[in-house]
Amino acid sequence: LQKLIHLLQATDDPLIQEQALITLSNSAAFSVNQDIIRNLGGLSVIGGMLSDCAPKVKEKALNALNNLSMNIKNQEEIQVYITQVCRNVESAPLSSDLQLAGLRLLTNMSVTSDYHHKMINSIPCFLHLLSEGTDRTQIQVLKVLVNLSANPAMTRHLLRAQV
Question: Which Gene Ontology cellular component annotation is one that this UniProt entry carries (predicted)?
Answer without folding.
Answer: mitochondrial outer membrane
